[in-house]
Design a protein that fits this description.
Blueprint lengths: L11 H14 L3 H15 L13 H11 L11 H9 L3
Length: 90
């Protein structure tokens, strides 16, 4: 089977860590990427879950702010009361 080169750009610290991981696993980075590619093609999916921390940092800050009453308007018991408050600044 013919071979070809693939160039991948990544953070140099990540590369160093990944090289160490691959060495610990007894393989090269090329082997690791080939294993990934073969599994992705065979299963026709990314062979691991990709996600983000839920809730993310922005949402966690908004939750914390709400708990502390930051950025929260006062409550109104009716639309009339709300409208009176909005028009009071005129």
């Amino acid at each position: 089977m013919a071979q070809t080169n693939v160039n991948i750009r990544m953070d140099s610290d990540l590369k160093t860590q990944f090289e160490a991981f691959c060495t610990d696993m007894g393989m090269t980075m090329t082997t690791a990427f080939t294993v990934f590619a073969k599994k992705a093609v065979r299963e026709y999916r990314i062979p691991f879950e990709i996600g983000a921390e839920v809730p993310n940092a922005v949402t966690r800050k908004a939750i914390e702010d709400a708990k502390n009453g930051i950025g929260i308007s006062k409550g109104f018991s009716s639309v009339k009361e709300l409208m009176e408050d909005l028009n009071a600044d005129d």
